[in-house]
Each structure stands twice: as C-alpha cells, then as structure tokens.
Amino acid sequence: MDFSLLNIAILLVLGAIAGVINVLAGGGSNLTLPALMLMGLPADVANASNRVGVFFQALVGVRGFQKHNKLETTEIVPILIPTLVGGVVGAVLASFLPEQWLKPLLLLTMLGMTFLMIIKPSAIVVESGTVAKKVSQSSMGWWSLFFAGIYGGFVQAGVGFVLIAALAGSLNYDLVRANALKLVCTLAFTSVALLVFIWQSQVNWSAGIILGIGAMAGAQVGVKLALNISPQHLKWFLFWMTLFGVIAALTY
Prior knowledge:
By secondary structure, this protein is mainly alpha-helical. The chain has one domain (5-251). It has ten helices and no strands. Helix 3 (43-67) packs antiparallel against helix 8 (175-199), helix 4 packs across helix 8 and helix 7 (159-170) packs antiparallel against helix 8.
C-alpha cells in the first residue's frame, strides 16, 4: 500500500466521516472499506485493518456518551449476553454457509430497516417520557438482541442498524441511549474479531492506525451531534444511512 500524503489525508478524512456516521447511525465502513481496497489492500486485509478504526471509534464514542450520562451501565451485561451468544451462532453459520448468502442478507436487512422506518417510525423513535425496559423484562428484547447478534456474527456490515432497531424498538431506549449501547455492542464484537484478525496476521497496522485517528476525531463530533440533534432529525439521518447501505450492497 502506498502511504503517500494524499492517501494518508484521504484515510484521515474518511475515518473522521465514518466515525460520525457510525456514532449517529451506522454504515461508515461503506466508505472506508472500498477506500482501503482501492489503495491496494486485499479484501481480507482491508476488512481486518478497518476494524482498528471501528474499535477506536467505538471506544471514544462509548466514553463520550458515558461522560454525559447517556450510557445505561447497569444494562451493559444483560444486553451483551444475548448479543454475543447470537454472534457466536452467526459466526458458526457463516463458516458453513456459502459466501453468496452474505450480499442478499445484507441487502434484505437494509431494505427491511428502510421500510420499517417509513411504515412504523415508532419502532425507531420512541415517544418522549417512555420508560426503557430491562432485558430481563422483555423476552422480545432478548430475542431481538440475539438475532441482531446472529446477523452481526454472520455479516457484520449494517449490524448497527439492527442493534438500534432492537434497542429502540424492543426495549424503548431513545435514540441517544440506543446509540450508546449500540457502540458497546460494537466494541465487544470488534474486539473479538480484531483478536482473530491479529492472530491471523491480517491487520495492516499503518492503515488501521491512520484510519483510527480519523475515526476517533469523528466519534467525538458524532457524540456532540447526537446529544444536540433532535430525535426526528436523527431518525432521518438513520433512514438515509440505511438507504445508502442498500445502494452499497447493490454496488459491491
């Protein structure tokens, strides 16, 4: 990979943009992954190196939401249990099922999320004053997180949208708190995946760290925007990001 000043600048800028997108919604990797591959990295190395940026972006995002008391720390473990169990199931399925299943599943999920936000906006934006449910109080919430985990373990791309639907739609979290908990799940997913990629020596650390620096800056901006933007504007941002995910799934 050519680490010219131009390529470094592109990675920093795209990392920052992806950091904002991933904190507010999801799908930032639709920008960074193609860029890494266009710069000469093989698909598997690009995928692994991209997780470095995702890891640091999620770390900064979680810390930012926690600092502003928007992270439900008592629910982290109950939320992670079904999500990670589902992630293991999804990873196992991915190892047995043909790779050709990945793109249709990604496309169907993105389309489903787009139509859900048009037909039933309440599934994403809860009414003001609605009390969030604990995972132990909602079997639907547990299973929603479990299936989000399966999807994340199987595909990974777009899992942020599925997690938001589970956290906001099933457990009644507002979008700010749902995004905070989504980032916790993302951090857990990514940490496990990154360890595997490091073990397989697939990470290009130079590219990953440059991307990570940009992603951390973007995550800080994303947290500030999430705290100040209205739920309706955030919902529409989420909508356009899922639509962009559909276009990306059709293109790649």
